[in-house]
Specification:
Shape of chain B: globular
Number of helices of chain A: 16
CATH topology of the largest domain in chain B: MetI-like fold
Order of helices and strands of chain A: HHHHHHHHHHHHHHHH
Structural class of chain A: mainly alpha
Strand content of chain B: under 5%
Order of helices and strands of chain B: HHHHHHHHHHHHHHHH
Largest sheet of chain A: none
Helix content of chain B: over 70%
Helix content of chain A: 55-70%
Distance between the termini of chain B: 31 Å
Mean pLDDT of chain B: 91
Low-confidence stretches of chain A: 290-295
CATH superfamily of the largest domain in chain A: MetI-like
CATH class of the largest domain in chain B: Mainly Alpha
CATH superfamily of the largest domain in chain B: MetI-like
Oligomer: heterodimer
Number of strands of chain B: 0
Radius of gyration of chain A: 25 Å
CATH architecture of the largest domain in chain B: Orthogonal Bundle
Strand content of chain A: under 5%
Structural class of chain B: mainly alpha
Shape of chain A: globular
Distance between the termini of chain A: 41 Å
Chain lengths: ~300, ~300
């Protein structure tokens, strides 16, 4: 190794590992608890006091109840639609804007950047935003979920910085060969920017998957609800009619099963996201580069 | 003068012609910004009007600052401003240093596999949806929830923690720190990776210990990142995570939990008092902007680091 470590450094190193292990455990334990509880026998769970290290007993009954709840299915379907459609629109706009604004010798790009930057620090506020969506006739349509949040200035600027870092020679030679800007973007710029693109897709997709507020204020029709609104009814509003679409054998057990259903729904709605992000983790640094804010 | 501006106009037109493809690409983006960001800014003029949906924004009569004066006299004015500022200040106090400390600790880890495992685990809470986080909070803090179970071992009496107005801020801040610390550390890890390793080597030759290295090399190396992020944070001092509050608060805890944004939400979207709630929202935005500009100005003066 580079240098010998003193006794003090060794103690520090050990202590550091202990502290970081505890911090990591605190970060994941709440989800682990929910996971264990979702498989636990509700009768045992209700008597149990303190933390769980494994499911108490085993049952998949909660999952049966949740997966048979038609609202969960519709919510899931809508969410997948919003995530796929929303991410596509977001990425299309972000890539086009980022490429255009990363080109040098474009007279108005400085002013467009100012237009974009202002919105990061000042907004019209919730009520005028709501009135606008109403005026556009988007209330109770999927567009209210897909369009208003489509762009993030932060992501756009990160992407622009990344595109601006691509060597000019690469683009100039394509231009000499007669390629126009659209084909330069899609054939040259995007293929060499896979890392930043995958992080942006993750950011937009996770943002859309987890968002609920716009849906809560713009959607009244249940058939359009994303999964987060169904979750809100089950977890927050404690809407009993939502939880047990199927009759439990013994009505006395209803309360117990409601609890089980809450745990299970959390797992069903969260696991897809939690399975994806570790694979993109190594790219995260590229996605949060703050130096990009300048210039 | 006229000639000059005509000349500039011609230059712009020529540029649009030469770069028409570029402008075509950026056009949907510009339209999006105008529609979804600038139209609401224009719409916020209803703060100065007696807005009637039937009349529209243009035809509704101007009433000057009446809505703002009404807000300053509102019986809840003091409460929601105090709650907003306090939640934000506590959030900065706990939530701002936490990622820096985590990044510094992670930076000292030599074992790569351990480091990336810790990163994966600490990033996890960031990916959990707000609704789910609040669902977990409600479950854990309920009378028979896990937190009460553990507190009862210590002799505390079980009660619904979310119905206790003295605990709302603690719950809100603790869950924010839980959710944001790992994710927030990424940016500092990136800054730490950019510090020249030769500086450390030189300091070892000079006989500097770990603590001295952190104090004289590591912290100065990431100070500009810290300052930029602090300025940005100051610019949203009046923006608290109101989505989480809406999911967690109830009339029992309004006294400590109700903030400007949640009041705007109730006044505007539940009571339909559009002009009044827009005025409150605008007041909030302007205060934010003032804080941002002040923080940026102070920083530029004393540390040569600023947003622009």
């Amino acid at each position: 190794m580079i240098s010998k470590r003193t006794a003090g450094e060794r103690v520090f190193g050990l202590l550091n590992i202990v502290i970081l292990s505890i911090v990591s455990l605190i970060c994941i334990y709440p989800m682990l608890y929910i996971l264990f509880a979702s498989f636990s026998d509700p009768r045992l769970l209700i008597q149990h006091q303190g933390i769980l290290f494994a499911p108490l007993g085993f049952t998949a009954k909660g999952y049966m109840l949740v997966l048979n709840n038609p609202n969960i299915g519709t919510g899931y379907y809508n969410t997948i639609l919003y995530v796929a459609g929303g991410t596509f629109i977001s990425m299309l706009l972000t890539c086009l804007g980022a490429y255009a604004l990363s080109r040098k010798r474009v007279l108005l790009s400085k002013y467009i950047m100012i237009l974009i930057t202002i919105t990061m620090f000042f907004s019209g506020g919730l009520i005028p935003f709501y009135l606008l969506i109403m005026k556009l006739g988007m209330i109770n349509t999927r567009w209210a979920i897909l369009l208003p949040g489509a762009l993030s200035s932060w992501n756009l600027i990160i992407m622009r910085t990344s595109f601006a870092g691509i060597p000019d020679g690469l683009l100039e030679s394509a231009k000499i060969d007669g390629a126009n800007d659209f084909s330069i973007l899609f054939r040259i710029v995007l293929p060499v920017s896979k890392a930043v693109i995958s992080v942006m897709i993750l950011f937009y997709a996770v943002g859309m998957w987890n968002s609920w507020f716009n849906a809560a204020i713009f959607l009244k029709k249940r058939s359009l609800f994303p999964i987060q609104l169904i979750l809100r009814e089950i977890l927050i509003l404690n809407d009993k009619s939502q939880m047990l679409q199927i009759k439990v054998v013994n009505p006395k057990d209803a309360g117990m099963y409601r609890m089980l259903v809450q745990y299970t729904t959390i797992i069903v709605a969260t696991v897809p996201i939690l399975l994806i992000y570790p694979f993109l983790q190594k790219y995260f640094v590229k996605g949060v580069f703050v130096g990009s804010l300048k210039g | 003068m006229v000639n000059n501006s005509g000349g500039r106009m011609n230059t712009v037109l020529r540029d649009i012609k030469v770069n028409r493809m570029i402008y075509l690409m950026v056009l949907p983006v510009v339209i999006w910004y105008i529609v979804f960001c600038y139209l609401p800014m224009y719409g916020s003029t209803i703060a100065f009007k007696d807005f009637k949906p039937g009349l529209g924004i243009i035809n509704s009569p101007w009433i000057g600052f009446d809505n703002f004066i009404e807000f300053f006299r509102d019986i809840y004015f003091q409460r929601i401003v105090t709650n907003t500022v306090l939640l934000s200040v506590y959030d900065i106090l706990w939530g701002f240093p936490a990622p820096i400390i985590l990044a510094l600790l992670l930076n000292e880890v030599r074992n790569r596999a351990f480091k990336s495992t810790v990163q994966t685990m600490t990033y996890l809470p960031y990916f959990v949806a707000t609704v789910v986080v609040c669902g977990i909070i409600i479950d854990f803090t309920s009378t028979n929830g896990i937190i009460n179970q553990m507190l009862s071992y210590l002799g505390a009496e079980k009660h619904n923690l979310l119905a206790d107005k003295n605990l709302f801020r603690t719950i809100y801040i603790a869950s924010s720190v839980w959710q944001g610390t790992g994710w927030g550390s990424i940016i500092y890890l990136a800054a730490l990776a950019n510090i020249d390793p030769q500086l450390y080597e030189a300091s070892i030759i000079d006989g500097a210990g770990k603590w001295k290295q952190i104090l004289h090399i590591t912290l100065p190396g990431i100070s500009s990142t810290i300052v930029i992020l602090l300025i940005l944070r100051m610019g949203s001092i009046m923006n608290v995570g109101f989505e989480k509050i809406i999911l967690l608060y109830n009339p029992l805890t309004y006294e400590t939990a109700d903030v400007i944004a949640t009041y705007v939400y109730r006044k505007g979207l539940i009571d339909f008092d559009y002009s009044y709630s827009s005025a409150i929202g605008l007041f909030n935005s302007v205060i934010n902007l003032i804080f941002l500009l002040a923080a940026n100005g102070i920083s530029r003066k004393y540390s040569e680091t600023s947003l622009w």
